[in-house]
Amino acid sequence: MLPLAKNYLESDVFKRVEAVPKIAEHYSPRPAGADGLWSELSFRLRRRLGVLNGIIDKLLITHTDAGAEIEIIDFKTNRIVYDKSDVPRELPAPRIRAPKGGQFALNFEDEPLPKPVNRHPSLQEALKTAAEDYQLQMQAYALAVRELLPSFAGATVRVTLHFLDPNVEVHLADELLEPARCEQAVDEGMQRTIFSSDPANFPVKTAPHCRMCNFLSVCEAGKKWVQENWSTDDAD
Ligand code: SF4
Fold first, then answer.
1. Cys-Cys with 105: which of 19, 73, 97, 134 at CB 3.0–4.6 Å?
2. CB 213 near ligand 1, within 6 Å
3. What is the pLDDT of residues 128-179, one digit of tens each?
4. What CATH code would you report for 2-195?
5. Residue whose CB lies within 8 A of the most ligand 1 atoms, among 115, 202, 205, 212, for a mutation test
6. Ligand 1 mean position to 215 CA, how many Å?
7. DSSP helix/strand/coil, 76
8. Is the separation of the CB atoms in 218 and 233 below 8 Å?
């Protein structure tokens, strides 16, 4: 964990976190309007099909001339495996918006990336794949924050996935965080969960994320896909 901790201490996320007043972690009141940092903020969100429980790693509230901004920060410790060679893979412009200072904004609705063949993906592709797995979670957090903090109704909501290895921030595209989109994503996710009780409802979806999957050792389809798409020379 030490390298991850060092990355965090050197990150822009840490600078932003350090710049605002800290709120006591236990039994602290909900954010009411002032700047501050809330850590391990638990929430309970009631939806038509069920109740969603969650804990937000860090909630950062700041005010600028443009108004209030709520930043939802979620730390990810899974290792991002990618090709560190200088050979860039071509990406359509809209997929990663405004790369700036190690930060990426992703829009997952573009056409799918081509499959990597016998090599790791580029950093951008690896980040896109990893972040895509967390899109619904982040939309749920954004929905919870909006519903549970009515005093911030007009605030800008921003989501940051901080991948501590290799210390890169990824931000979900604004359109994915629109209230209606978040509501739809959460409700559809709940509906899929409720009506998908048979294993046949959860077909394996092999993709670059298989390399980072905790179930790879017991997933035959995932193992086969990794063997076919990455040579042993690429393994590190
Ligand atoms: S290894 Fe298997 S279970 Fe894991 S992501 Fe890949 S297909 Fe899904």
1. 97
2. yes
3. 888 888 999 999 999 999 988 888 888 899 999 999 988 899 999 999 999 9
4. 3.90.320
5. 205
6. 6
7. strand
8. no
